């Protein structure tokens, strides 16, 4: 029997903190963009997450949605009417998102940034909408289809907040206080709108959590144990899971110290090289990102190649971290989405316009940037990311309540303000807040999980009192 | 004549930019001093520094021989608030600790609470120092200067747009009994008597400024010139010694400008001291007893208007010649 | 249920939210401090006062709380608890303000929201403190033990006369205002009678009309106490007070709408009737979906017609709010007075019709409960009447509201209030005029938070059970709505806003009764959606509220 590792709460708290941070970050991205470019400290943003989480139920459990149940065959099956409905909604949703970017002209490709024949653009948009519709309908009632559906619908609905409410208030030169209060009213409407349809009971998704993996079955919600050993001859990692009281090893990675040193050295060299290579370029991948990617790639490649080995009999130090594939998936999803956002901001015309508007709106207007389109893009992104965060949160918590998103509002605000109200800062700030929440609960004795949000808030308060401009950026 | 305001080696930097660079000058009591200079010479920054709205990075400003920084010590009210808060907080923590940690029971807890409150009040003295050290350079207290008789107006008039013209003026007098919350309940008679006096005073001021016909108008509805008059009237209601006027006639029509200048001269003869930043050369040259020319954050020349108009260095500075 | 019982439960909430919103109005309306965490003080006030009247915790039962002062004489009373709750929340408000008050307004809003969430979470998760996530019960509201009252006893007579005092004083004050308008009714003579001659003779001695009203109320209270002690004339006194109240209300409505010409009156009545017609599908249609769709469609049509009318006809636009007000009065009249007698009328029961009418007229008393005094009246038959506790509680609440309103008005109608409004307008000006905004903002937070705490204590009395949901952020939102509807910075407007908000709530609660219980949650949530939409409309079209910002230029010392 191999040496056993003991679980340490701190590492677990850190890993939980990264998961929480990922979800907070997904939400905070939209909040930060709207705060920064739209000048609205949007108190309704938390409820967008709720809206997204409940919208997914339409696909995931159509039979339980009041009103829609008539089109469903049972809890999870839908009839032809239901299919037509979901298809139509997704189809209109996609086209709606495009429409928000500038009306009919946007549908004809006005937002593409390149000159394309209108007929081609229209065809592409319609085709995309149809593809999404088909994906949703054929995917029903799977979780991914539900996610896609929620993201599209909320992405199309949220910009309406701007065009129906905030744009009008801004046109009247409303003060920040007015916009704040208006957003609170919108929050009220969204939250209780959801409750009007879904009622007061707590709901949950039904997800088939077992997926085929490496020849066996893998339940993604079951926690896996990651045991780390530091021994005289090297460092090892064993992944295990508990089933029926027995611990079953899933995989073992073992490295001698020489291997560790080699990989670290190569990673460092490649990292520095990548940094030198990409720094001072204005492209998608700047210096720091390139270095990070190089290091990660080296560690992954090296780690896989040198993996074979066994768990040591004794170790100087051993510890165990608990993580489920679902949680890892959430982290990866968040990273992928951030990558996409980064690409959008750096490499597309729209993204460049957004950054210019963020720097100086008047100047951007003078330079002929369509600030209204930028504004709508911001709200669309807020909707897309918010819905994603909401659905993931609903899945992770395995229950949906009406306060799901509102409860996350303070952590999101904390992340955004911590980051100095800009989108990159908000991502960093959100991870800081997520970590603070989980580690705080763990580290302070007698603090129950109810105090997660107060901990996030205390972080915010300290930042506001000490350094109101945030941890990132000057102003 | 005595120098009522002495400025010595004043400095102010914003990031890498130096706005005021060692300016030194003095303002005589009962005189009108004009402060001029090309754009970016640091006039407005100097104004903010000597009115306490910004903190200098170097140098001193003395008002009647006292350092501005000393005059801007926290007011008694502010000290009471912070001291009370410290006492309450320390007392509560002490009381809770006494009951929960030491198991003293209710009576013991109350005793600890009292001791804690005492400690808190004592602790306050030290804490106040810490707070001052921390905030000393971020929170100036210009209102303390207004109480001492040094007031200013703003370049872009800042009237209380939602309040009436009369209310704008009635706000100004110092030390009104009714500004104390307890007096609004307990000394209503005193307050009402004083309020009637203040109202009378404000009406007289409005008559003087020929604004009496708009006294119940919201200040936001006034014309640009009327706003300048209102702002002048408001600082006069404070009955100050030194008045710093930031571009008092910008945007005011010529006949009103004439009136304003007359008013200022009359007030000077009554003993008020003025320091004026103004771009209108004709006005400033006619009005001022002394002119201070600033350039690149420092005083270039100081002298009587006639001499300044002849000065080569001044002409060069305005033309941008090095 | 008689109209009055509905009105009493509605007025209790108006009083509580009136005080709560007055507190927010001090902070936001007068000083410009956007406190999104106002409910935090409400929560602290509620729990604090409850702990003062609860008996010491019994470790054996299921509820746990840290301390209960209920058995200590003097300390364990509501009066003491409310005072402590008010002072404590004021102090907390001040302490919270110290570090945060310098923040930008959006940061301030977020920070204060966060602090209220912390309060809520502490109550929720610390089960030793105040029973944690479960409700804190086990106390009764003040003087409830005296009810149902014994008319022949001294305490009973005094309790009864307290309510008489409040009603009589309020009605007399209102009448004295109405007297100033032209009226065909002999209001002067009525006023002379109801003030027992004071209104015409001793007005000079007593000073203001409010002093006259107070003394008149006192006399009426003494007389009614004597009548109760001597002869247990509960019904007689109740009927007299009721009739006086109706007189004042009807005169008020009449005077308020006296200026309307015929077509405007018709429009208002039409609006009210339209509202009634729109609700017809609810009781008539069998299927719930049909009734919902029908009602919503008719309501939509009504709103559209109204919108169309105010945008196309100038004379309608001029009276757009009056029409809604008149329609509401008309609607309430029919809904509560006419509809209840339709049933007995249909069955031809004259005594039923008169009985219903009688119960509605004598609003001062509660009918038909088991306790009380039985009377036999011609035609109507046997009735049992009593003065129930909720009417007494309402009298206490209205007294508190009136007192707090007066104290607050004194504070803001002064140079102090002027500085607050100047801070809201432009802080730099205040600084340049030798006044320290910090000191004033802290005081504003203290007063506003203390009022929030007082309202919390009232809530503790009213609800007789507290949970951490008492501190839900929605409450702040409602208080904010009330402030905006009536008029930001206008205390009178805040009271109007509270009346309108709870009027809306009351009306829609009744409607929810038509839906099956399973759908209640949805209907009540939909009501809040409507509230949110109305709030946006108010914010956009009437940012200064119905009454607008108050003009203070003729404040004190100008009379």
UniProtKB/TrEMBL annotation, chain A:
Topology relative to the membrane: Multi-pass membrane protein
Transmembrane domains' residue ranges: 12-35, 78-99, 120-137, 143-165, 177-198, 255-277, 289-306, 326-345, 374-397, 409-437, 449-466
One protein family per Pfam: BPD_transp_2
CC annotations in GO: plasma membrane
GO biological process: amino acid transport
GO MF terms, alphabetically ordered: transmembrane transporter activity
Name of the protein in its database record: Branched-chain amino acid transport system / permease component
CDD domains the UniProt entry points to: TM_PBP1_LivH_like
Family designation: Belongs to the binding-protein-dependent transport system permease family. LivHM subfamily.
Keyword terms, alphabetized: Amino-acid transport, Cell inner membrane, Cell membrane, Membrane, Transmembrane, Transmembrane helix, Transport
Automatic annotation (TrEMBL), chain B:
One GO MF term attached to the UniProt entry: ATP hydrolysis activity
InterPro entries (alphabetical): AAA+_ATPase, ABC_AA/LPS_Transport, ABC_transporter-like_ATP-bd, ABC_transporter-like_CS, BCA_ABC_TP_C, P-loop_NTPase
Protein name: ABC-type branched-chain amino acid transport system, ATPase component
The organism of origin for this protein: Halopenitus persicus
Residue stretches making up the ABC transporter domain: 5-321
SUPFAM superfamilies in the cross-refs: P-loop containing nucleoside triphosphate hydrolases (SSF52540)
Superkingdom, natural source: Archaea
Record bears the keyword Transmembrane: yes
UniProtKB/TrEMBL annotation, chain C:
Single GO cellular component term: plasma membrane
GO molecular function: branched-chain amino acid transmembrane transporter activity
Superkingdom of origin organism: Archaea
Keyword hit for Iron: no
Classification via InterPro entries: ABC_transp_permease, LivM-like
Transmembrane annotation, as ranges: 6-24, 36-55, 75-98, 154-177, 210-229, 235-253, 265-282, 288-307, 319-341, 361-380, 392-412, 442-463, 475-504, 524-542
Topology with respect to the bilayer: Multi-pass membrane protein
Subcellular localization: Cell membrane
A Pfam family: BPD_transp_2
Keyword field: Cell membrane, Membrane, Transmembrane, Transmembrane helix
Keyword Transmembrane helix: yes
Protein name: Branched-chain amino acid transport system / permease component
Organism encoding this protein: Halopenitus persicus
């Amino acid at each position: 029997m191999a040496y056993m590792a003991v679980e340490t709460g701190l590492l677990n708290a850190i890993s939980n903190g990264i998961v929480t941070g990922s979800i907070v970050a997904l939400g905070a991205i939209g909040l930060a963009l709207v705060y920064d470019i739209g000048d609205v400290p949007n108190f309704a943003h938390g409820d967008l997450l709720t809206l997204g989480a409940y919208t997914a139920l339409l696909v995931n459990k159509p039979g339980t949605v009041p009103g829609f149940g008539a089109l469903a065959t049972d809890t999870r099956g839908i009839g032809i009417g239901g299919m037509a409905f979901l298809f139509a909604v997704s189809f209109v949703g996609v086209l709606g998102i495009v429409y928000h970017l500038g009306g009919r002209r946007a549908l004809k490709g006005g937002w593409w940034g390149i000159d394309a024949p209108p007929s081609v653009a229209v065809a592409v948009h319609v085709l995309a909408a149809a593809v999404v519709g088909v994906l949703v309908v054929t995917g029903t009632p799977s979780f991914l289809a539900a996610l896609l559906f929620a993201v599209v619908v909320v992405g199309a609905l949220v910009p309406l907040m701007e065009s129906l409410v905030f744009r009008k208030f801004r046109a009247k030169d409303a003060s920040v206080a007015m916009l704040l209060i208006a957003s609170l009213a919108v929050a009220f409407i969204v939250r209780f709108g959801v409750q009007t349809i879904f009622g007061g009971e707590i709901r949950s998704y039904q997800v088939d959590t077992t997926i085929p993996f490496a020849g066996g079955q893998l339940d993604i919600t079951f926690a896996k144990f990651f045991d780390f050993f530091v021994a005289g001859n090297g460092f090892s990692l064993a992944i295990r899971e508990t089933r029926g009281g027995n611990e079953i090893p899933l995989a073992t990675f073992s490295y001698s110290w020489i291997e560790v040193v080699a990989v670290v050295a190569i990673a460092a060299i490649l990292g520095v090289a990548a940094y030198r290579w990409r720094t001072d370029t204005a492209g998608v991948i700047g210096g720091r990102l390139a270095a990070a990617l190089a290091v990660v790639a080296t560690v992954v490649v090296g780690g896989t190649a040198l993996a074979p080995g066994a768990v040591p009999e004794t170790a100087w130090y051993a510890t165990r971290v608990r993580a489920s594939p679902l949680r890892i998936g959430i982290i990866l999803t968040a990273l992928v989405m951030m990558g996409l956002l980064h690409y959008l901001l750096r490499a597309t015309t729209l993204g460049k316009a957004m950054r210019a508007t963020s720097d100086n709106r008047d100047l951007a207007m003078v330079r002929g940037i369509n600030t209204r389109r930028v504004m709508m893009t911001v709200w669309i992104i807020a909707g897309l990311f918010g819905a994603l965060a909401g659905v993931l949160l609903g899945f992770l918590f395995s229950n949906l309540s009406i306060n799901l998103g509102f409860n996350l509002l303070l952590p999101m605000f904390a992340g955004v303000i911590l980051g100095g109200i800009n989108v990159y800062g908000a991502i960093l700030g959100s991870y800081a807040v997520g970590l603070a929440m989980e580690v705080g609960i763990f580290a302070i004795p007698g603090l129950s999980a109810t105090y997660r949000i107060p901990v996030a808030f205390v972080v915010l308060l300290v930042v506001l009192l000490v350094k109101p401009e945030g941890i990132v950026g000057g102003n | 004549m005595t120098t009522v305001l002495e400025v010595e080696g004043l400095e102010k930097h914003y990031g890498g930019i130096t706005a005021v660079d060692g300016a030194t000058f003095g303002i005589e009591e009962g005189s009108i001093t004009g402060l001029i200079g090309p754009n970016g010479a640091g006039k407005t920054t100097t104004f903010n520094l000597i009115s306490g709205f910004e903190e200098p990075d170097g140098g001193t400003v003395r008002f009647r021989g006292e350092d501005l920084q000393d005059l801007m010590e926290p007011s008694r009210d502010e000290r009471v608030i912070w001291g009370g808060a410290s006492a309450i907080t320390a007392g509560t923590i002490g009381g809770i600790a006494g009951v929960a940690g030491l198991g003293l029971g209710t009576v013991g807890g109350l005793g600890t609470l009292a001791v804690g409150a005492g400690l808190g009040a004592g602790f306050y003295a030290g804490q106040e120092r810490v707070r001052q050290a921390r905030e000393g350079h971020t929170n100036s207290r210009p209102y303390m200067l207004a109480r001492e008789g040094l007031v200013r107006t703003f370049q872009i008039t800042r009237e209380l747009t939602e309040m009436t013209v009369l209310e704008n003026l009635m706000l100004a007098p110092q030390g009104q009994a009714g500004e104390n919350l307890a007096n609004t309940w307990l000394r209503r008679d005193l307050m009402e008597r004083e309020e009637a006096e203040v109202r009378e005073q404000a009406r007289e001021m409005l008559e003087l400024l020929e604004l009496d016909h708009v006294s119940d108008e919201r200040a936001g509805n006034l014309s640009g010139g009327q706003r300048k008059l209102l702002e002048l009237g408001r600082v006069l209601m404070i009955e100050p010694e030194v008045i710093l006027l930031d571009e008092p006639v910008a945007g005011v029509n010529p006949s009103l400008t004439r009136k304003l200048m007359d008013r200022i001269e009359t007030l000077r003869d009554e003993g008020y001291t003025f320091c004026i930043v103004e771009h209108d050369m004709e006005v400033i040259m006619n009005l001022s007893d002394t002119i201070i020319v600033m350039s690149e954050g420092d005083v270039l020349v100081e002298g009587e208007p006639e001499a300044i108009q002849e000065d080569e260095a001044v002409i060069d500075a305005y033309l941008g010649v090095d | 249920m008689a109209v009055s019982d509905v009105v009493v439960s509605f007025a209790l909430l108006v009083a509580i939210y009136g005080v709560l919103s007055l507190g927010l109005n001090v902070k936001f309306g007068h000083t410009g401090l956007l406190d999104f965490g106002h409910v935090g003080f409400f929560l602290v006030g509620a729990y604090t006062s409850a702990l003062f009247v609860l008996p010491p915790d019994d470790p054996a039962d299921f509820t746990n709380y840290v301390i209960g002062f209920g058995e200590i004489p003097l300390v364990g009373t509501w009066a003491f608890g409310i005072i402590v709750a008010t002072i404590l929340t004021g102090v907390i408000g001040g302490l919270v303000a110290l570090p945060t008050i310098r923040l930008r307004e959006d940061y301030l809003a977020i920070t204060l929201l966060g602090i209220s969430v912390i309060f809520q979470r502490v109550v929720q998760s610390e089960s030793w403190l105040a029973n944690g996530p479960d409700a804190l019960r086990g106390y009764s509201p003040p003087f409830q033990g005296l009810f149902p009252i014994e008319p022949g006893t001294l305490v009973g007579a005094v309790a009864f006369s307290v309510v008489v005092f409040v009603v009589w004083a309020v009605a007399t004050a209102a009448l004295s205002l109405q007297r100033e308008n032209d009226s065909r009714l002999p209001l002067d003579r009525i006023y002379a009678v109801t003030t027992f001659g004071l209104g015409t003779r001793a007005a000079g001695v007593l000073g203001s009309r409010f002093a006259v009203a107070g003394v008149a109320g006192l006399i009426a209270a003494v007389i009614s106490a004597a009548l109760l002690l001597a002869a247990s004339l509960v019904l007689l006194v109740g009927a007299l007070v009721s009739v006086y109240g109706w007189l004042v209300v009807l005169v008020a409505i009449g005077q308020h709408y006296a200026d309307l010409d015929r077509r405007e009156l018709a429009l208002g009545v039409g609006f009210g009737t339209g509202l009634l017609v729109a609700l017809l599908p609810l009781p008539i249609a069998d299927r719930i979906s049909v009734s919902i769709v029908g009602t919503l469609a008719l309501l939509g049509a009504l709103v559209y017609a109204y919108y169309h009318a105010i945008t196309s006809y100038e004379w309608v636009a001029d009276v757009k709010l009056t029409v809604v007000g008149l329609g509401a009065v008309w609607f309430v009249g029919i809904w509560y007075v006419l509809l209840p007698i339709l049933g007995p009328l249909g069955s031809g029961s004259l005594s039923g019709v008169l009985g219903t009418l009688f119960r509605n007229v004598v609003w001062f008393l509660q009918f038909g409960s088991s306790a009380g005094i039985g009377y036999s009246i011609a035609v109507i038959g046997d009735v049992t009447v009593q003065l129930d506790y909720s009417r007494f509680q309402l009298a206490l609440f209205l007294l508190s509201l009136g007192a707090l309103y007066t104290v607050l008005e004194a504070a803001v109608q002064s140079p102090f209030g002027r500085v607050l409004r100047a801070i809201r307008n432009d802080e730099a000006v205040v600084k340049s005029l030798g006044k320290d905004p910090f000191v004033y903002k802290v005081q504003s937070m203290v007063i506003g938070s203390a009022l929030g705490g007082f309202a919390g204590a009232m809530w503790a009395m009213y609800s007789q059970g507290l949970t951490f949901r008492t501190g839900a952020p929605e409450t702040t939102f409602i208080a904010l709505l009330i402030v905006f509807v009536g008029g930001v910075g206008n205390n009178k407007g805040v009271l109007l806003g509270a009346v309108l908000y709870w009027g809306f709530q009351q009306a829609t609660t009744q409607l929810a009764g038509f839906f099956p219980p399973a759908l209640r949650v949805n209907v009540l949530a939909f009501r809040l959606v409507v509230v949110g939409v109305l709030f946006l409309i108010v914010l956009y079209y009437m940012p200064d509220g119905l009454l607008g910002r108050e003009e203070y230029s003729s404040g004190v010392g100008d009379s």
